Amino acid sequence: MLPPRLRWRLERWRQRWRETFGGLARTEPKPRICFSCGCLVGATEKTCSYCGARQSVLSLGFFQR
Hints:
The chain is mainly α and about 60 residues long. It is built from 2 helices and 2 strands.
């Protein structure tokens, strides 16, 4: 068993490590905004539930505006 001071130091190191690098690996994708109508669309949805527009990574309609 580790002495209390060493355990405390290890726990602080783990906590700092999680704070520093924990935000880099996101487990859940963020919701997006539809390029056509501007409503929020779920991250895994392929089409907008409001206007029916296809949701892709980059939409050509967005650049044509």
